[in-house]
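Chapter review: from sequence to fold.
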Amino acid sequence: TSRPGLRSLLRPFTLGSSRRRAGPPARNGSLLEHSGRVVYTAYMFGLLLALGIGFVSGLRAFTGLAALALARGGIWGIVLAVGAVGEYVADLMPNIPSRTALPSIVLRPLIGAISGWIIAGAHGGSAVAGAVLGIAGALIGTYGGHAARLAAIARIGAVPAALAEDVVALALAA
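The token string follows.
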């Protein structure tokens, strides 16, 4: 199958009547439309998911990959889910190094790349572009999550801040 060119991805589209009843976006082949206007293509949707799962990997390294593996089923989903739970528990410990220190700063983008590759490819996007966006999302999640966590610790304390970040990571991965 051929992939759409960059120009066709960025060009605004209009399909059908603009008087279409409001509601959730409907699939029209490879295009997703809402109220008669194309919101994005399925290709772009796969890449957006790659960025999002990368962001989750930046917040909690194993959560994004565990969510993908659990959705597929099998023993690897269970193994990665146990690893993710272990990460949630370890994150509450005061002696755990920062996510911006080695080896975490290398591991999170790597897992973001793997997760982005998988989810973009599965949703019709470019696997390579998904990996790149997974890395970008992981770096945004790592540094943005670190800044948000420090601000939350100053306001509500370390444990509530960690638990709030856990909830955000789980909700985004779901």
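Two observations follow directly from the output. The CA atoms of residues 58 and 141 lie 4 Å apart. Helices lie at 6-10, 42-59, 63-72, 75-91, 104-122, 127-156, 158-173.
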